[in-house]
């Protein structure tokens, strides 16, 4: 057979270059050497030629390229999130090039026009990169945070009603079981001690916001505040304990290997999770896989319960349950009924499968729990260090909470923009310590941004914390906590692109209003009842360097009962 093939090829190639001669030339050794040279060239190109000599971005100012294998990533991974980038912007200006591992370039654009182009005008050209979508998908399900393009448009349209004002109004009362529980617990802990008590406030904010999001997302009473061994809360705690730059770098590396994302999301990986643990360096993977498995198992149990009762859900019932999952189930029932009424009808344009509904709710649990807990914790930290601002806030909220300890949506909304210490305290805290300090986009086409040619494939850092504290906009005290600045905004302030904590455009946070209302309800109750101060002199904040910015030390604060002062 091989002989016949060789004869045929010899005939095709003709006499000038005989097959036997070729066989001599292309001996396996030559092939091997050729392949080796090609791989070597690719490595040299990737690590040296492209970043130093060939990249169209090579002349853009930025920090030194650093080690060819890692670039600037060790500095980024080891530092507080956003701080190295902030220093580079101070040093190099509003357009910065940063080279990461294996010569991968990231651009930072600071100006509003550039951010408008990336986040709003051409958002379809600049989606979240695959590695980010895969990480978010692993942790929060394949929902709004991971889809892009038309799928995203349809999904967002389907999800918007769950975040409508009427729905938020109806949901507000769901916050108060957790808030009352939180106040009781802190009262018990602090007691009548004259000097108060040091409490790790992040841990309690995290439990309270988990209970709130479980109730608003599923209608499920997790009660993690009173039950230290709640499985869902424990799984999230484990997951969040992995939030560190080095862990994130490991997960991104696995996700970037072809098939890595599928592997981590697979049942096989869960069943063999101990194997990862045996490889010392990957010892965080079993914890991640186990936590995710438990969260999915518990969530799917809750979904099954909802679906089982779906037939009894009456969509016109004004007393109907307002949690997000009930809304999705009702929308699906309505969709199917509508389709059945039409000749040849099929269900509507975005009919959610069980799995899609699960993923959405996992997304809301993942995106809406830790962010809100961090937002509240940083606000308490900043107020603890600004006793005057804290006293002003207390003077504003105490009468409101004394009149009704469960203010409704309207009353919470009333504590509103620029009229209220509560509102400006949050704006200022979310400005300086944004719970999501940085995100990433990828150019899927070559284009000019702020006059710079950006080749297809370039990563773009969306510099949330850096823009929020940019001296060119916010002035020389940009990095300081000063809620009063919101009463007299600087002329350079841009309403959309000077404060990016919830970003902007079609991917802007869907839970923005919900989280602000929820944080107001929690903070109002806390500030009415307690005074917060640093736990010890010289205390420094310790934010984690990861996707979200939570305190790594649980944020100890000295908490004192207010009744002592009245
Ligand atoms: C203080 C609290 C919060 C902050 C600072 C925050 C911040 C953000 C940011 C910066 C993004 C954009 C991420 C990116 O594009 O890479 C985002 C997206 C998102 N957030 Fe939030 N978030 C908060 C609370 C919530 C809550 C309570 C929910 C839901 C219950 C939520 C659900 C989402 C979802 C679903 C997205 C994806 C939106 C899309 O791509 O269409 N967030 N959030």
TrEMBL record:
Coiled coil: none annotated. Its cofactor is heme. Gene3D superfamilies: Cytochrome P450. Transmembrane segments: none annotated. Pathway: Secondary metabolite biosynthesis; terpenoid biosynthesis. Its main location: membrane. It holds the Pfam family p450. It is found in: Membrane. GO terms for cellular component: membrane. InterPro entries: Cyt_P450 (IPR001128), Cyt_P450_E_grp-I (IPR002401), Cyt_P450_sf (IPR036396), Cytochrome_P450_monoxygenase (IPR050121). Keywords: Heme, Iron, Membrane, Metal-binding, Monooxygenase, Oxidoreductase, Transmembrane, Transmembrane helix. Heme binds at residue 509. Belongs to the cytochrome P450 family. This is Cytochrome P450. It comes from Crucibulum laeve.
């Amino acid at each position: 057979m091989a002989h016949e093939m060789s004869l045929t090829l010899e005939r095709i190639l003709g006499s000038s270059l005989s097959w036997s001669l070729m066989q001599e030339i292309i001996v396996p050794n030559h092939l091997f050497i050729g392949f080796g040279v090609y791989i070597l060239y690719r490595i040299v190109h990737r690590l040296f030629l492209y970043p130093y000599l060939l990249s169209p971005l090579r002349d853009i100012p930025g920090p030194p390229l650093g080690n060819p294998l890692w670039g600037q990533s060790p500095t980024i991974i080891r530092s507080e999130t956003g701080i190295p980038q902030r220093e580079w912007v101070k040093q190099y200006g509003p357009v910065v090039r940063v080279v990461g591992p294996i010569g991968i370039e990231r651009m930072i654009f600071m100006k509003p026009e550039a951010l408008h182009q990336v986040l709003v005008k051409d958002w379809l050209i600049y989606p979240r990169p695959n590695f980010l979508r895969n990480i978010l998908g692993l942790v929060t399900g394949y929902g709004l945070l991971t889809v892009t393009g038309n799928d995203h448009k349809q999904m967002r349209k389907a999800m918007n009603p769950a975040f409508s004002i009427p729905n938020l109004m109806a949901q507000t009362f769901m916050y108060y079981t957790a808030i009352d529980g939180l106040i009781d617990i802190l009262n018990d802990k602090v007691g009548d001690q004259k000097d108060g008590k040091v409490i790790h406030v992040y841990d309690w904010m995290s439990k309270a916001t988990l209970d709130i999001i479980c109730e608003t997302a599923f209608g499920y009473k997790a009660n993690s505040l009173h039950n230290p061994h709640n499985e869902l809360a424990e799984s999230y705690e484990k997951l969040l304990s992995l939030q560190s730059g080095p862990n994130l770098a490991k997960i991104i590396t696995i996700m970037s290997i072809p098939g890595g994302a599928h592997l981590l999301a697979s049942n096989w990986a869960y069943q063999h999770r101990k194997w990862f643990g045996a490889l010392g360096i990957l010892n965080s993977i079993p914890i991640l896989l186990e936590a995710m498995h438990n969260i999915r198992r518990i969530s799917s149990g809750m979904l099954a319960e909802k679906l089982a009762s779906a037939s009894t859900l009456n969509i016109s019932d004004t007393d109907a349950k307002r949690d997000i999952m009930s809304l999705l189930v009702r929308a699906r029932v309505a969709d199917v009924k509508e389709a059945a009424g039409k000749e040849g009808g099929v269900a509507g344009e975005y009919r959610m499968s069980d799995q899609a509904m699960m993923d959405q709710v996992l997304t809301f649990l993942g995106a809406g729990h830790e962010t809100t807990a961090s937002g509240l914790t940083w606000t308490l930290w900043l107020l603890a260090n600004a006793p005057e601002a804290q006293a002003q806030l207390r003077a504003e909220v105490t009468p409101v909470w004394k009149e009704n300890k469960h203010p409704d949506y309207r009353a919470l909304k009333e504590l509103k923009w620029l009229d209220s210490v509560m509102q400006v305290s949050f704006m200022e805290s979310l400005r300086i310590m944004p719970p999501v300090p940085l995100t990433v986009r990828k150019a899927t086409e070559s284009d000019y941004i702020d006059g710079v040619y950006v080749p297809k494939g370039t990563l773009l850092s969306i510099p949330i914390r850096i823009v929020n504290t940019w001296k060119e906009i916010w002035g020389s005290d940009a990095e300081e906590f000063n809620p009063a600045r919101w009463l007299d905004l600087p002329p350079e302030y841009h309403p959309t692109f000077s404060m990016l904590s919830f970003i902007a455009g079609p991917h802007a946070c869907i839970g923005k209003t919900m989280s602000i209302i929820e944080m107001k309800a929690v903070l109002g109750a806390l500030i009415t009842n307690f005074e917060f101060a640093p736990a010890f002199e010289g205390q420094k904040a310790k934010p984690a360097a990861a996707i979200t910015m939570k305190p790594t030390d649980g944020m100890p604060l000295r908490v004192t009962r207010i009744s002592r002062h009245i």
